[in-house]
Amino acid sequence: MSEVRIAAEPRTAFGKGAARKIRRADKVPAVLYGHGIDPKHLTLPGHEVLLALRTPNVLIRLEGDGVDELALPKGVQRDPIKGFVEHVDLLLVKRGEKVTVEIPVTTVGDVNSDGLLDQQLVQIAVEAEATHIPTGIEVDVEGLEIGTVITAAQLQLPQGSTLAADPEAVILQVINKPVEVLEAAEEGAAAEAPAAEGETAEASAE
């Protein structure tokens, strides 16, 4: 996993008023904690933070006056309407250290046409080195039949990662399509049939 370098400034002013002033300057208040250190209050550039947080579990290298640390975002507060970052909690990590994180679970392929994919978990907890956190796990569902169940224990974890969740947790399953879905498909097929017959008749007349 590559590091995203972000300039960090020590923060000495606190409270809602100070935080609003920081945000008006297109910056983000943050707190760095972990490994028994006293929390460090920082100010980070807003745009760089927004870009970095697009990557799940992004590894951030904080650089600045009195700061040169690796950190993982552990808590992000966003404006509920505009979506910009209002505050970030950062967990201090060391190279070689194991951390537990939630990573995305995605699927590739299509299940059997008679079935419907029911994905119950879109994230799963794994333990990995702080500097080698996987970006996610892909599950191949191509051709899976109705009744198939994939549990956490069956996931193909990236090298160096171990499962940190209940191994019996259901990730996804293939279920019967609801009646309304089947009826809609049948109606669509019935509507297409006369149209196709009409096109054939016209072609013959020509």
UniProtKB/TrEMBL annotation:
<dbReference type="InterPro" id="IPR020930">
    <property type="entry name" value="Ribosomal_uL5_bac-type"/>
</dbReference>
<comment type="function">
    <text>This is one of the proteins that binds to the 5S RNA in the ribosome where it forms part of the central protuberance.</text>
</comment>
<keyword id="KW-0699">rRNA-binding</keyword>
<dbReference type="GO" id="GO:0022625">
    <property type="term" value="C:cytosolic large ribosomal subunit"/>
</dbReference>
<comment type="similarity">
    <text>Belongs to the bacterial ribosomal protein bL25 family. CTC subfamily.</text>
</comment>
<dbReference type="InterPro" id="IPR020057">
    <property type="entry name" value="Ribosomal_bL25_b-dom"/>
</dbReference>
<feature type="domain" description="Large ribosomal subunit protein bL25 L25">
    <location>
        <begin position="6"/>
        <end position="90"/>
    </location>
</feature>
<keyword id="KW-0689">Ribosomal protein</keyword>
<dbReference type="GO" id="GO:0008097">
    <property type="term" value="F:5S rRNA binding"/>
</dbReference>
<dbReference type="InterPro" id="IPR020056">
    <property type="entry name" value="Rbsml_bL25/Gln-tRNA_synth_N"/>
</dbReference>
<dbReference type="GO" id="GO:0003735">
    <property type="term" value="F:structural constituent of ribosome"/>
</dbReference>
<feature type="domain" description="Large ribosomal subunit protein bL25 beta">
    <location>
        <begin position="98"/>
        <end position="175"/>
    </location>
</feature>
<dbReference type="InterPro" id="IPR029751">
    <property type="entry name" value="Ribosomal_L25_dom"/>
</dbReference>
<protein>
    <recommendedName>
        <fullName>Large ribosomal subunit protein bL25</fullName>
    </recommendedName>
</protein>
<dbReference type="InterPro" id="IPR011035">
    <property type="entry name" value="Ribosomal_bL25/Gln-tRNA_synth"/>
</dbReference>
<dbReference type="InterPro" id="IPR037121">
    <property type="entry name" value="Ribosomal_bL25_C"/>
</dbReference>
<dbReference type="InterPro" id="IPR001021">
    <property type="entry name" value="Ribosomal_bL25_long"/>
</dbReference>
<comment type="subunit">
    <text>Part of the 50S ribosomal subunit; part of the 5S rRNA/L5/L18/L25 subcomplex. Contacts the 5S rRNA. Binds to the 5S rRNA independently of L5 and L18.</text>
</comment>
<dbReference type="GO" id="GO:0006412">
    <property type="term" value="P:translation"/>
</dbReference>
<keyword id="KW-0694">RNA-binding</keyword>
<feature type="compositionally biased region" description="Low complexity">
    <location>
        <begin position="187"/>
        <end position="206"/>
    </location>
</feature>
<dbReference type="Pfam" id="PF14693">
    <property type="entry name" value="Ribosomal_TL5_C"/>
</dbReference>
<dbReference type="Pfam" id="PF01386">
    <property type="entry name" value="Ribosomal_L25p"/>
</dbReference>
<feature type="region of interest" description="Disordered">
    <location>
        <begin position="186"/>
        <end position="206"/>
    </location>
</feature>
<keyword id="KW-0687">Ribonucleoprotein</keyword>
